[in-house]
Amino acid sequence: MKVAVVGAGPAGVRAVERLVAAGLSPVWIDEASDGGGRIYQRPPPGLARDARSLYGFEAKRATALHDTLDALKPRCDWRPDTLVWHIRPGARQLQTLCGGRQDAVTYDAAILCTGAMDRVIPLPGWTRPGVTTMGAAQIALKTQGCAIGHRVVFLGTGPLLWLVAYQYAKAGADVAGVLDTTPFITKARATPGLLLGGATFAKGLYYIAWLRRRGIRIAEGVTPLAIEGGDDGVTAVTWRDAAGRDHRIDCDAVGMGWGLKPEAQLADLAAVPFRHDALQANWVPVRDGAGRTPVAGIYLAGDGAGIGGAEVAEMTGARAALAVLEDAGHRLDPIETVALDRRLASQARFRAALERAFPFPAHLARAMADDTLLCRCEGLRAGELRAAARAEAATGPAPEMNRAKAFTRVGMGRCQGRVCGAAAAEILAAELNCTVPQIGRLRGQPPVKPIPISAEAAP
Amino acid sequence: MTTTCDVLIQGGGGAGCSAALHLAQRGMRVILLERGLVGGQASGVNYGGVRQQGRNPAELPIARRSREIWGRLGVLVGTDAEFTVTGHLKLARSEAEEAELIAYLDVAKQHDLPLRMVGRNAIHRDYPWLGPLVVAGSFAPEDGAANPRLLSPALAHAARAAGADIREHAEVVAHAHDGARFTLRTKAGESFAAPVLLNVAGFWGGAVAAAFGEAVPIEPLSPNMAVTEPLPYFIEPNLGVVGGNVYLRQIPRGNVILGGGHGEADASIPWSRPLPEVTMEAAQLATQLVPALAGVQIIRSWSGIDGRMPDRIPVIGPSRTTAGLFHAFGFSGHGFQLGPGIGAIMAELIVDGRTDIPLDPFRIDRF
Amino acid sequence: MKLVRLRDAARPRITLRLDGVPIEAQRGDTLLTALLAADAGYLRDSEFGDGPRAGFCLMGACQDCWVVVEGRGRLRACATLAEDGMEIRRG
């Protein structure tokens, strides 16, 4: 049986581990030059830093994953630096691009572990040099030893907000402020559920307490107003507090993010149906508890199948591999699958509490000013999207997301709506006076990411 | 309960929406039934060429009529659908192809279509970005391109304003004719009846015709399309080649839209996808025409479903089996430019019982 | 935008050129790091006149850090390692 695993983050590593243990040698593809995913991304050769300083509390987990990764590479058809840009579920074929060379990989089963990216809400000034996602700020520090600026403000919500601020301050960066759009009370209400997270929750509290102790400016329940500056960069962030007072913090960089969203483009191209997960406020591909999808031969694991975090990704990776083996007639140890399923169920309860503690602030997207740049690829402003939803538009109103894309080019650019899609959906839904599930989701189109025209065909 | 009207239209592509508009303007009570959203298939996801040159001579009277409507689209529907008169430059890559271009000059002349040859020296002088493979071209200055995503919705919106009832998500699942009127039933269980039925259902128009005892040899056709990232604007004319294995145009925003070959499709879902190797081959052919495109990134690709007839020209005209039934389908991959004109012509056929446009070559019983 | 080197700042030096201007960088830098830790300030201009861009996600998703590397074509600065002697143009 030929199995392909796309992605070598926590989910991909644990999936391949199970497949190899069962005697298979999967094709294993990652877009990066090394595995680890974004969370455990290793610095390039030459940057010699110990795991503790790179991954903090997660050092042990990261080291274990890297050790497994390195041990597995020679036992697979390991293909780093390789983009899977299209999938043909009928022909069971992945279309890959590596160093300008096109190739096709056929599979009997494919486990897609394509990860996640930051979910962002555009605000005035967000495209200025000096503004990055929260994940970007973390990657700069982790893999390049760099801060995104001299004085950095972190803006958004979610566990990553506090973690990255902590990592920056710990590394000696000047953290000028941590602005959480979630009010304290929302988080406090979710505490009982968060206790299910045990150590994860404790670590979160530790970061917040640590930042407070250092006297770092922290505000909760904020409404972001703008990122000020010019073409050469950022000069300040302005925001409004819960009492309606306006504030400003001088800074030269901003890291922003409101939780994560699945990078599920490949599942989309594989024709896996999607459902809207109200709690996560994300569209997620449909799969069963073991990662099986309604599309023959397609299995999903990790954050690309719905946000669960790195620990859950390792479990879902293993679980999807077991499902592949089971479906191919391998006999599994029932005790192992039951134990894994039980742990996954417990983690799901913690994740639900986490989502309640840091809800996606849809109201911020819906309130976006008309002249705010919404789609950074196509240079589209929020007001242009709203206009397309109105009856007086010459094309008539766009009743759903893909029609809005057709009329306005929102999500038609290089990133295909990865960055602006979540906020665009809220804006359109608000304008049409309906819900995000009602207006549907931006459909992905091949290629998953841009591919050069000069690419040669494989011999 | 059955909703009645004067004319039922099945299919919300460019032709159907234009027919709804023109019929409504003539005072007819019109109901248009569209399975998905208007312009969802061939009319909405095609290349966007508004091209007359190179067409089968039989199509040229329709194309000329349609071009006149394109020119006043802004007045007619409130948007020009980004129609830009860039000219269409059809390129020859060999002497044999050049001879074909020269031969077509006479056809154009007979139909008053402005067209001129651009010879071997002039072609590289006037269009210095063309590759050495190109030996000559013929230039149609009145041709151009438009945004296919806007045309059908804009026509439908104008038709609604003129009184037409445009129903989206209304898939027709049953047809009946009792000798006097047609009754169509939708998937949702609604019933519609009228003495006249206009079949403009694209590939699925074949099934409608078959339901009235006049099956035709129609096949699904899925043009393979792609678009690049935005580049500085330098390719002004819409480009095609003799043989048609690649075509490309650049919009003033900078993106280059290119097509060639066919994707895969399942018309029963309906579902269509571009094929990776077809996309890459079209892209390579494009770089032979315009070498500066090498290294440029493709950011999206797509396909849709059209109907192709064996002789590559559509079925247009009255039914031979059923009075009151009219067809216009099977545009074989080049119906976008014709759509607005088809609507006007079908409205004449239905309301006046005649049209000046010769439709004999398109009759349904020609196969 | 100016990236600030906090750690691992004592790696072997390499030299690149951005639009002809020499840029001092370090082995192990991505192109994005190399350019923005020096004084490049930004990586590309938006095609639609809404200002300069300097990347956003650093994980190859946002597609906002494309630059041109002589001999290698268009590349994402965040996902490409800087090499000594690279000639770069803003995307």
Automatic annotation (TrEMBL), chain A:
Ranges where the BFD-like [2Fe-2S]-binding domain occurs: 374-429
Keywords attached to this entry: Oxidoreductase
Pfam families, A to Z: Fer2_BFD, Pyr_redox_2
Protein name according to UniProt: FAD/NAD(P)-binding oxidoreductase
Signal sequence interval, chain numbering: none
Top-rank lineage group of the source organism: Bacteria
Keyword set includes Oxidoreductase: yes
Xref: Gene3D superfamilies: BFD-like [2Fe-2S]-binding domain, FAD/NAD(P)-binding domain
From TrEMBL, chain B:
Molecular function GO terms recorded: oxidoreductase activity
Pfam families linked: DAO
UniProt keyword annotation of Oxidoreductase present: yes
GO cellular component: cytoplasm
Keywords of this entry: Oxidoreductase
Matching InterPro entries: FAD-dep_OxRdtase, FAD/NAD-bd_sf
UniProt key word Oxidoreductase: yes
Domain FAD dependent oxidoreductase residue range list: 6-349
Matches recorded under PANTHER family: FAD-DEPENDENT OXIDOREDUCTASE DOMAIN-CONTAINING PROTEIN 1, SARCOSINE DEHYDROGENASE-RELATED
Name assigned to this protein: FAD-binding oxidoreductase
Species this protein is from: Neoroseomonas lacus
Automatic annotation (TrEMBL), chain C:
Annotated keywords: Oxidoreductase
Transmembrane segment boundaries: none
Pfam family, one: Fer2_4
SUPFAM superfamilies in the cross-refs: 2Fe-2S ferredoxin-like (SSF54292)
Domain 2Fe-2S ferredoxin-type: 12-91
Superkingdom in the source lineage: Bacteria
Listed InterPro entries: 2Fe-2S-bd_N, 2Fe-2S_ferredoxin-like_sf, 2Fe-2S_ferredoxin-type
GO molecular function, one term: oxidoreductase activity
Protein name: NAD(FAD)-dependent dehydrogenase
